[in-house]
Amino acid sequence: EPEVTQTPSHQVTQMGQEVILRCVPISNHLYFYWYRQILGQKVEFLVSFYNNEISEKSEIFDDQFSVERPDGSNFTLKIRSTKLEDSAMYFCASSASGTRARDGEQFFGPGTRLTVL
Amino acid sequence: AQSVTQLDSQVPVFEEAPVELRCNYSSSVSVYLFWYVQYPNQGLQLLLKYLSGSTLVKGINGFEAEFNKSQTSFHLRKPSVHISDTAEYFCAVSSASGGSYIPTFGRGTSLIVHP
């Protein structure tokens, strides 16, 4: 069964460093998403991406964040200068149809746990 | 704006006992409701969803949920749990606000099934 994969499973970094979180969405999906979950808190939407551009983003997704689809398979989230409060689990998701289709089911990856020291 | 409240952060239960995981939501527009499950070291998997029609929704692994508009609830139930049901469960709501259906998630409920 096709699935979304994410690497690495755990990333430890120093405050101020850049990190890139990688995701391989399901191959025939066209819509891609990033969410994060700070420990003990809610899963929060960060950004959605379609046709090589951001389609929606939340207030959390500020200038420190960027997303890219560098090739036909990967979807990345970059944090330019990490802060302590960026420590969280980051989930990638993909869907065949976009968020404007109410039943566009999103398929989630296992997450990358980012720890900023 | 929409929000989701999962009042129970942890629910311990014995194997073969029934379980209910509670979810309440708030929204000013029509909503669509979801339950996701996350097994250890895996991604979020859709258990079931309510879009319209019958308020009792059946999902995978024997779970079901009932949409109650007057109580703004969407509680998840299973009549007899197994050890393998031990996981984190997330309730989510989306609506037609602004034409986007980006879901808003609750904080999750950890279901712990004891032998």
Short description:
The complex is a heterodimer of chains A (117) and B (115). Chain A has 117 residues and is mainly beta. Chain A has strands at 5-7, 10-13, 19-24, 31-37, 43-50, 53-57, 65-68, 75-79, 88-95, 107-108, 112-116.
Could you explain the architecture of this structure?
The complex is a heterodimer of chains A (117) and B (115). Helix content of chain A is 0%, strand content 49%. Chain A is mostly beta strands and 117 residues long. In chain A, the strands form two sheets. In chain A, strands 2, 4, 5, 6, 9, 10 and 11 form a seven-stranded mixed sheet that branches. In chain A, strands 1-3-8-7 form a four-stranded antiparallel sheet, with no helix packed on it. The radius of gyration of chain A is 13 Å and the shape is globular. The model of chain A has no long low-confidence stretch (mean pLDDT 91). Chain B has no helices and twelve strands. Chain B is globular and about 40 Å long. At the A-B interface, strand 5 and strand 10 of A face strand 6, strand 10 and strand 11 of B.
**Helix/strand-derived class of chain B?**
mainly beta
How confident overall, as mean pLDDT of chain B?
Answer: 90
Give the distance, in angstroms, between the N- and C-terminal Cα atoms of chain A.
37 Å
Please trace the helix and strand order of chain B, writing H or E for each element: EEEEEEEEEEEE
SS elements, strand count of chain A: 11
Number of helices of chain A: 0
Order of helices and strands of chain A: EEEEEEEEEEE
Largest sheet of chain B: 6 strands, mixed
Uncertain regions spanning at least 5 consecutive residues of chain A:
none
Instruction: Write down the overall geometry of chain B.
Output: globular
Radius of gyration of CA atoms of chain B, rounded to a whole number: 14 Å
Count of individual helical segments of chain B: 0
Helical proportion of chain B? under 10%
What structural category do the secondary elements of chain A indicate? mainly beta
Biggest sheet record of chain A: 7 strands, mixed
> What's the β-strand tally of chain B?
12
Radius of gyration of chain A: 13 Å
Work out the largest interface and the residue count of each chain: A-B, 28 and 25 residues
